[in-house]
Write a structure and sequence with these properties.
Blueprint lengths: L2 H41 L5 H4 L1 H5 L8 H4 L2
């Protein structure tokens, strides 16, 4: 192979790589957005919320802050 043929082959491989990674990135972005929508919708269902979000189990009544406890 001469040098021009090697450069042309390299550019073809690079173009193919860019197209494949672009396609993979689009697919991953679509999947992540779909998962975000799914989990946000699932959080609206009260019975599923404790399984999805551990923070929901920690939710409770706020502690009243008195003056002497606040300064410690």
């Amino acid at each position: 192979m001469n040098e021009k043929e090697q450069i042309r082959q390299y550019l073809q491989l690079f173009d193919r790589l860019c197209q494949q990674t672009g396609k993979l990135t689009k697919i991953m972005l679509i999947i992540l957005i779909a998962l975000l929508i799914f989990f946000q919708a699932a959080l609206r269902i009260h019975s599923l919320r404790p399984f999805i979000s551990p923070v929901d189990r920690l939710d409770g009544i706020p502690v009243e802050r008195s003056g002497k406890d606040w300064h410690k």
